[in-house]
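Just scan my protein:

——
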Amino acid sequence: MATPWKTIGAAPTSLLLLLLVSLAAVEASPPEPIVKCKSGNKDCSVTNTYGAFPDRSVCQVAAVAYPTSEAELIAVVSAAAAKKQHMKVVTEYGHSIPKLACPGGPSGAGLVISTQKLNRVLRVDAKSKRMTFEAGITLSKLISAAAVEGLALPYNPYWQGITLGGLLATGSHGSSLFGKGSAVHEYVVGMRLVVPQAGSARVVDLGENDPDLLAAKVSLGVLGVVSQVTLQLEPMFKRSITYRIGQEEGFESGLTSFAEKTEFGDVAWYAGIKRVVFRDDIRLPLTAPGKGNNDFEGFQAQPSLIITAIRKTEELLEATKNPEGRCLQARVQVKALLITGSGLKNDKSRLIDFTGYPVVGNQSDMQASGSCLFSPEDGLFTACGWDSRLEGLFYYQSAFGITLPKLSSFIADVKKLRELRPSSLCGLDLYQGLLMRFVRNSTAYLGKEDCADIDMTYFRSRDPEQLRLDQDVLDEVEQMAFFKYGALPHWGKNRHVGFIGVAQKLGDRIDKFVAVMEKYDPDMLFSSDWTDAVLGIRGKSVAVDKKGCALEGLCVCSRDEHCAPEKGYYCRRGLVYKDARVCRKIEDGESTIVHSEL
């Protein structure tokens, strides 16, 4: 998950720096449960940690189960299978943006199975450097448990609050082209699934040479419930991290070379303010000096008053149509984050914890962060910035993997778009710009090719009918990535648009995946309308055809009514990518009937 850095409006730099530094020691209220029930564990609703799915619908289910062992999990799945009840797995914090956690079948009749209590370390094989975990263990606990054994997970996502089962189901990753690459599923050497069978349940035990593991590694949650996972780990090592600003002009030509030489490197392109920040992130031996820690600013606790003030500032800039104000914010923010180390700490035991680059520390302390999750309840005085109980950050996140040979052309097209609308991309810069992480070609059926996986995070209105500032430009970038450059989506992120045509992009790999799905769940009890649509089966479609559907990425507009003509927004061609169809504001005096554009 690439969650936004905080923004403090157009505050003076000194005030911004003071806030950023002082927040590091603040504790946070943990998020509320994503499953809420009216009566015990029955008559429940399910959402995600952001409090909203892309289509804003509410997922109603009959009940939730909290098994504490594989035996209990088998009993739960068996009982539901006997009733042919549709099921889905939910995780502790629910960071998947699409509707993967909502069961199929009649609304309100499904069952959700929480892995919250399936969070233990089961086995350690020191000789082979392998550990077996229950699927509900969070990344934070997994990393800590491995460190106790002197072992490390070599590559992983940056956010600690996701579970092992959840991150595997969605193909989550860090950034690296080294070894097998940055996707955690490439280091899975064993997996146990509990699947329905003839009105009961059975356990499927997959070894590293079992061909069905290629489906189970990235499963979208449709192959049953992942009970246990065995990972191949490495001896503990250290990392050295430095953030540096590079030249934007022509930077795209050197990205592949950078990724091939920098084991954990990533690149944040602030396209609106024309800045590129390289993360020089390399491996060092365990004997290297350094007690560093990565406590990324965007994942630290923030006082609720500041969270709401940040949001009000964003809404004001949107309402007053002030893209230049967003550019000013972005310049201040990026400068401040670099000066303060963006949450990196040379030695967290000292009063001044960031003293300069590079920051060197154990892999277990540097690879992921998320301190806002792991603090005692404080009455919501402080929280994660996106906590749905607050009027805080609320955003879209489009994430797309563009193959390395196509990457420079995509960046060149985005630059052309910026030339036509110079301030239109500054909204992205408030949320870490276009963040590029590198991913190797995957063995999994639903994995990616060698690519830069790009996170694009941006403002979302709480009113689904509210038009966003520079919406047409951001939607054109999104469509350009998915349709012109054939990008594959991140399964745990994205709006509906990102999943249009994905089955065709994957070709026979989808067929192989579906064959395993039908083998393990012939009654499709773990499938839903959403997963059917994504996989292109049973006649389901991802896109929605209704009034205003293009405003929130539920469709690509083909008629003006998909936008908001009553507010002056009409469906028009892209400015650079002419095959794009976006909702654009037609100012007074312009012709609203331009048939050649539709």
Observations:
- Confidence is low (pLDDT under 50) at residues 1-26, 591-597.
